[in-house]
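pls design
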């Protein structure tokens, strides 16, 4: 039997550290709120936000949606960036570090 190290990252893609953006803000048609989330888990395919499983927002998001989002820079002197962004996946974390949340993958679309 093989000994598996739980701390080893077994995702298929290599993770990269990209600290250009700290948070993202957007609204969704049908909801009267503006949502702002910290950006997490940046990879070569995009980035992720965490949405609580009981949030009204989660029922209004679908993989494949493209939304206009505002990205706030990590560096306070950096510029705000508005970009069309695709929801690439919505994955519920049932037992990990973010239990009780959905990981919502974001991918900024090329201009």
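designed seq:
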């Amino acid at each position: 039997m093989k000994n598996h190290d739980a701390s080893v990252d077994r995702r298929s893609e290599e993770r990269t550290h990209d600290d250009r953006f700290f948070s993202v803000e957007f609204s969704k048609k049908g909801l009267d709120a503006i949502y702002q989330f910290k950006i997490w888990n940046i990879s070569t395919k995009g980035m992720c936000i965490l949405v609580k499983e009981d949030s009204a927002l989660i029922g209004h998001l679908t993989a494949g949606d493209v939304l206009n989002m505002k990205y706030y820079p990590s560096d306070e002197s950096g510029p705000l960036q508005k970009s069309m962004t695709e929801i690439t996946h919505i994955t519920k974390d049932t037992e990990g570090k973010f239990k009780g949340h959905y990981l919502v993958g974001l991918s900024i679309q090329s201009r």
